[in-house]
Amino acid sequence: MVQATESHASEHHSHAIPVSIGAMLITLGVVYGDIGTSPMYVTKALLAGQGGIMTVTEEFILGALSLVIWTVTLLTTVKYVLVSLKADNHGEGGIFALYSIVRKYGKWLIIPAMLGGAALLADGVLTPAVTITTAIEGLRTIPAVHDIMGDNQMNVVIITLIIVCLLFAVQRAGTSKIGHAFGPVMTFWFLFLGGAGLLYVIGNPVVLLAFNPIRGISFLLSPNNHAGIMILGSCFLATTGAEALYSDMGHVGRGNIYATWPFVKICLILSYLGQGAWLLANAGNADLAMIEDLNPFFQMLPEMIRPFGVILSTCAAIIASQALVTGAFSLVSEASRLDLMPHMQIFYPAETKGQLYIPMVNNVMWVGCVIVVLLFQSSAHMEAAYGLAITITMICTSVLLFFYLHGIRKMRVFPYVFVIFFVALEGFFFVSSLTKFFHGGYFTILMAALIMGIMVSWYNGSRVERRQYTMLPVRKYLDQLDRLRNDPSYEMLCDNLVYLTNSTSTDMLDRDILYSIFDKHPKRARAYWFLNVEVTEEPHTFEYSVENFGTDYVFRVHLHLGYKVNQRVNAYLRQIVSDLSASGELPVQTHDYSVYEEPGSIGSFRFCLIRKTLAPESDVEQQERHAIAMKYAIRRFAGSPVQWFGLENSNVFYEYVPLFTKFKHVDRMERVSVEERRA
């Protein structure tokens, strides 16, 4: 019932978020959390795959670091920052925004869009769990804290759950306020990463040779690579936040990402190089080999600085979770706009339309994250599940980007080079991550399959519904409405009968609304109102338009509301009725009884919400019947329009109309007498 203004390619839009110091600070606080915390667990995963610190060699360090550096460069810098950020839909980023501007090039493109979006949402549930758990486990590297916590992993789980609950509880404040709070912390985090790494790089500059891509390729193919091609699965963890970076573009604007990414990347690379230099300096250290699940990121910090490093990393882990949560809000909003998911209640806590909050998504992710923490408990187990689903998203994004580059940007050769190179590269990462499936990856794949199932069911159900959608001209039924409102043989239902409609057309109405008025027991009222809400791109638009078709009893109302305006339809309609009554366009609706000394000029209201149902007798194929049944089952969990439109205190009733008007043929029954039956 909310019709958003149609989106279009952002090269033509005029609502770009300007580049400023404040906006850049918000960008650091909102966008880079996931990719910014990768140094906490990437080197740890690489080391574990190689066999531990006793197997560290210069070939391994330089080769692994080279693979990490070029993974971040190719996937994050080249694909996402330089290419993907240009493919936005009215300022919004993410795989659904990308699909919305390329879908005209093939109906089948809905498949990679849904698959990629489902995988990203599933991986987003895992991000808060793995990053926060990793940071909390770092507390054990502080002797004084270890004496208190001990090796009992349940202590880590409890602390992680408390932080996760606090994180999701504050989402209602909005990403702008959160970004202002997180921005300075994240800026200091990156400076800390770069500074700590630089100290070890200066002490052992040989690690700079890792910038040579030949080192990485050679080690990948080397017999000394104990992990084989599976090492790419660990390297891929360094760039898992790239897709979230693209999805969060609507929150901060493309220009602010361009301005901040070089700083972020330099700090990340310095951290990886520093950890490599520390490992070279401590290769074969027997004392370190005794530490279970050794994490170079924490161990490389001097003992006096380590407590501060753990606290700062915990803050960064919370911000990492924020990047995926805000990205999930954007993704679901785009999916709803594309009719791939049900409409949900959305709040806009800030002045920027891209900064939104969806309570249902927040709560579902909250529950999912808690389940992940309780199910896997340790970061090592979570890392095994992490990253597999996101490789699917990246492959799907590459496919859609080909059509953007070729169809919209009109490039001829580059799109083919781009899609072949990146699908092959991401295919390698996907294959290397497949070993994670039985070690926890199954969880995110199952979640992705569940989300994909919801989107497919909703899409198929909507497609069947659209085939039955019929619009009828309002003017053709004015005479019937006039006769009905003056027909004393029917009881007066109310003074003002209001129908909410999806359509923005002024002259046409959904057949089901007219069917409800005339055929589902005629509904007599003094005036009939057909109303829809259009959300504008401006935050504070507060306007309405009315078409009365030359009558004083039929009104087609369009509410034009900014995205920051609460949709209190009941209150707004009363104002409109009052305006029309004052202008003489609507007869005064007097009544004789009232608790007030002077009764008002506005009569009673009843709001009718149409619900389409699938009757057992409908003549429809079994496959379509299942599609509709699944969509309606999902709709029941998506929330109530009564709440979305501020109708909680209004007189609302639901009208159920058949989705299909064609019914199966039924043979005529033969009448027999009672005596014949007794015989």
Please explain how this structure is put together.
The protein has helices spanning 21-30, 33-36, 42-50, 58-83, 95-102, 110-137, 143-149, 153-169, 175-203, 213-221, 231-236, 242-247, 249-252, 254-281, 286-289, 296-299, 306-337, 359-376, 379-385, 388-408, 414-433, 441-468, 478-485, 511-518, 569-583, 622-636, 641-644, 674-678, and strands at residues 2-4, 471-473, 492-500, 508-510, 524-536, 542-547, 554-562, 605-613, 652-658. It is of the alpha/beta class and 679 residues long. The chain has two domains: 23-458, Amino acid/polyamine transporter I, CATH 1.20.1740; 471-590 and 599-658, no CATH class. α5 (95-102) packs antiparallel against α6. The two termini are 59 Å apart.
Question: What does this entry show, briefly?
Answer:
By secondary structure, this protein is of the alpha/beta class. Helices cover 56% and strands 9% of the residues.
Secondary structure layout plus pairing:
Elements: E1 2-4, H1 21-30, H2 33-36, H3 42-50, H4 58-83, H5 95-102, H6 110-137, H7 143-149, H8 153-169, H9 175-203, H10 213-221, H11 231-236, H12 242-247, H13 249-252, H14 254-281, H15 286-289, H16 296-299, H17 306-337, H18 359-376, H19 379-385, H20 388-408, H21 414-433, H22 441-468, E2 471-473, H23 478-485, E3 492-500, E4 508-510, H24 511-518, E5 524-536, E6 542-547, E7 554-562, H25 569-583, E8 605-613, H26 622-636, H27 641-644, E9 652-658, H28 674-678
Parallel strand pairs: 1-5, 3-5, 3-8, 5-7, 8-9
Antiparallel strand pairs: 2-4, 6-7
